[in-house]
Specification:
51% of the residues lie in helices and 13% in strands. It is an alpha/beta fold. An eight-stranded parallel β-barrel has the order 1-2-3-4-5-6-7-8, surrounded by seven helices. It binds pyridoxine-5'-phosphate.
C-alpha cells in the first residue's frame, strides 16, 4: 500500500526537479522579454506549462495594499468617509498580505488617527511609508508598525517621485534605520534600481529594499520597459545576494505587474492606485443599486 503512494510521489518530485532545472530562469519567470523567435517559443511553452502544472510556477510574492487614496477621497471633503480603516479590513478579507499607508508630513491623506487605529486593527503586516523627518520617526517609534519604508518626500509632488537618495544622506539614514530597528520595526528603503544607491542602502543595515518601479510603469515602449526590467533583475540579484528582502512598487497595475512579480526572489509588491481605482469601478454598480433601493417607495409629490 505504502509503495503505491510513494512511487507516484517520487516520480512527481523527479519530474518537478527536472522541469525546474531545464527551464531557464528567465523563462520560468516569464519576463516577457521576447526578443526573437526562439525566446518567443520558450515563453509560449512556459505559459502552456503554467496551465498544465500551475503549482510549479506558484509565486510566493506578497501583496501590500496601499490605501492612501481612500483617505484622499475622505480628505477632499474633510469628512469621515470613506474610512481607510474599513478599507484595510476589506483588503485583508480579499487576501492582502500587508496594508501600506504613508503618513506624510503635510497629512494630505492619511491622518494620525488612521495609523493609530490601523495599528490596533490590522492583522497582517502594517507597513508605514515615511520620510526621514524627526516628527515622523518619533511617531513610528511609538506606533511600532511591522515595517517602515523610508521614502523621499517633497511638498509639491503629487505622489512619491523617485527613490530615496541614500548616498547624499547616508549618516542620517543609518541613524534612523537603527532607531526603528531598536523598536522592533523592520526597515525597507525605497530605492531606484541604481547600484550606487543600493550599495549605500546596504551600509544602513536595512532589512529590505523596495525597488521603485515608476520608470518601468511610465515606459512608453516595450524596448524601454524591457530595459527597466533588466535594471530590476541586476538590482534584484545584488539585493538578494546581500541577504536583503526584495520588494518593488509604484505605478504597478493589472496590466504591467506580472513581469515585475516574476523577477527571481521578488518577495513583496506594494500597489495602491490601480487597486483603489479598480475597487471604485467594481463597486460602483452595487453602490448605485443600494441608493436606488433606499429611495424605492419614496414617491415624488407634484
Ligand atoms: N511604494 C511606495 C514606496 C510608494 O510611495 C507608493 C505610493 O504611495 C507605492 C508603493 C504605491 O504606488 P501606486 O499607488 O502607484 O501603486
Amino acid at each position: 500500500m505504502e509503495t503505491i503512494l510513494v512511487v507516484p510521489a517520487v516520480l512527481y518530485c523527479l519530474f518537478f526537479c527536472c522541469m525546474s532545472s531545464t527551464i531557464p530562469k528567465t523563462v520560468q519567470s516569464a519576463t516577457f522579454e521576447v526578443e526573437n523567435d526562439a525566446a518567443r517559443h520558450r515563453v509560449t511553452c512556459t505559459l502552456q506549462l503554467r496551465q498544465v502544472f500551475p503549482r510549479m510556477f506558484t509565486s510566493m510574492v506578497e501583496l501590500g495594499v496601499n490605501i492612501d487614496h481612500i483617505a484622499t477621497v475622505r480628505q477632499s471633503r474633510k469628512t469621515v468617509e470613506p474610512d481607510p480603516v474599513w478599507a484595510a479590513a476589506l483588503a485583508e478579507l480579499g487576501g492582502a498580505d500587508g496594508i501600506t499607508v504613508h503618513l506624510r508630513e503635510d497629512r494630505r491623506h492619511i491622518q494620525d488617527r488612521d495609523v493609530n487605529l490601523l495599528r490596533e486593527t490590522v492583522r497582517c503586516k502594517l507597513n508605514l511609508e515615511m520620510a526621514c523627518a524627526e516628527e515622523i520617526v518619533k511617531i513610528a517609534c511609538k506606533l511600532r508598525p511591522d515595517q517602515a519604508t523610508l521614502v523621499p518626500e517633497r511638498r509639491q509632488e503629487i505622489t512619491t517621485e523617485g527613490g530615496l537618495d541614500v548616498v547624499s544622506q547616508s549618516e542620517e539614514v543609518i541613524k534612523i534605520v537603527k532607531r526603528l530597528q531598536d523598536r522592533g520595526i523592520a526597515v525597507s528603503l525605497f530605492l531606484d534600481p541604481d547600484p550606487k544607491q543600493i550599495e549605500a542602502g546596504f551600509k544602513t543595515g536595512c532589512d529590505a529594499v523596495e525597488l521603485h518601479t515608476g520608470c518601468y510603469a511610465l515606459a512608453e515602449t516595450g524596448k524601454k520597459r524591457n530595459a527597466e526590467l533588466r535594471r530590476f533583475q541586476i538590482a534584484g540579484e545584488m539585493i538578494v545576494s546581500a541577504a536583503i528582502r526584495l520588494h518593488a512598487g509604484h505605478g504597478l497595475t493589472y496590466h504591467n505587474v506580472l513581469p515585475v512579480a516574476s523577477i527571481p526572489n521578488m518577495q513583496e509588491l506594494n500597489i495602491g492606485h490601480s487597486i483603489i481605482a479598480r475597487a471604485l469601478m467594481v463597486g460602483m454598480k452595487e453602490a448605485v443599486a443600494e441608493m436606488k433601493q433606499l429611495l424605492r417607495g419614496y414617491v415624488k409629490v407634484s
